[in-house]
Design a protein that fits this description.
Length: 294
């Protein structure tokens, strides 16, 4: 089983959303990383056959997905960033409705719904209206609907957006559990969501695939380029304008900065071990990033 994305591009007038994206995927969890506007959602919609590429083709096995039609949809599970749900539907009824849209046998669907509700921790909420579920519960419902047909290809677009840290950890563990023997693509701009579960990182920038490899492969690129330093508060703006700064922390003795730089950024800077977030910022080239690490 493999999914081959062959020189795929998508253009909207003067905008190139996806630019000659080319890779072959086999079973495993792939973390699709990139800043907002990198083309991640467009690429995933193309993979799900919801959007046709301007150029290039996607093959599942030896067949182009456009020619597979319904056969491809049978092996595909998709959780969009904002999946549609009916707030007045009860949780169980919503899954029954999605199962009917997917053309699943009612007897098979009933058993599958029961097992999925247990898997995602919503058995006790089966009679609750979807609109009354918490954000984390609705996200878990979203992955349940994507798994109804036991897909071989699972596409998850920003599945942890808006969740608190505890819910995100639960969701990561859930994804790791359900993704065995599947080609799973997890698109996110939250780097820590894929650091622990992805077998490979796919890094997008301006529609292009700029890196593919393991977390270790990616972090090794910035080995020797990550520093911490403490500076006076008046120096912070100047440094963040010039350097890639992944963390800013105010202390009693000054402002501690975590900096990605080819050379030692200040005389008192200390070299530290890189993280996936450091490598991500290095590849995307974003400057002036401020915020605490999780």
């Amino acid at each position: 089983m493999e999914l081959k994305i062959q020189s795929v591009s998508k253009k909207y007038k003067d905008l190139i959303a996806v630019n000659a994206f080319d890779c072959t995927l086999t079973p495993g969890i792939y973390g699709l990383l990139g800043p907002n506007g990198a083309g991640k959602t467009t690429l995933m919609r193309i993979i799900c056959a919801l959007t046709r590429p301007t150029e290039g083709k996607i093959f599942y096995g030896n067949m182009e997905i456009g020619n597979l039609g319904a056969e491809y949809r049978k092996v595909l599970g998709f959780m969009p960033q904002n999946f549609g749900y009916y707030p007045h539907f009860k949780t169980e009824r919503y899954l029954e409705y999605i199962a009917s849209i997917k053309g699943l046998n009612p007897n098979f669907a009933k058993g599958k719904i029961n097992s999925l509700l247990e898997l995602v921790g919503l058995t006790e909420k089966r009679k609750s209206k979807v609109g009354h579920l918490s954000g984390g519960m609705r996200q878990r419902l979203g992955i349940a609907q994507a798994l109804l047909n036991d897909p071989d290809v699972l596409i998850l677009d920003e599945p942890t957006a808006g969740l608190d840290p505890e819910e995100r950890v639960k969701f990561r563990n859930l994804i790791s559990t359900v993704s065995q023997n599947k080609i799973t693509i997890l698109s996110t701009h939250i780097v820590t969501d894929v650091a622990y579960i992805a077998s490979d990182i796919l890094l997008m920038k301006k529609g292009r695939l700029t890196f593919r490899g393991s977390v270790d492969n990616l972090t090794n690129v910035v080995q020797g380029k990550v520093w911490t330093t403490t500076v006076k508060s008046g120096e912070v703006d100047d440094i963040t304008a010039k350097c890639i700064v992944s963390n800013v922390h105010n202390t009693a003795i000054g402002t501690e900065l975590r900096i990605i730089s080819q050379s030692k950024p200040t005389s008192n800077a200390i070299q530290v071990e890189p993280t996936l977030e450091d490598a991500y910022l290095f590849y995307t080239g974003e400057k002036g990033i401020q915020g605490g690490a999780e």
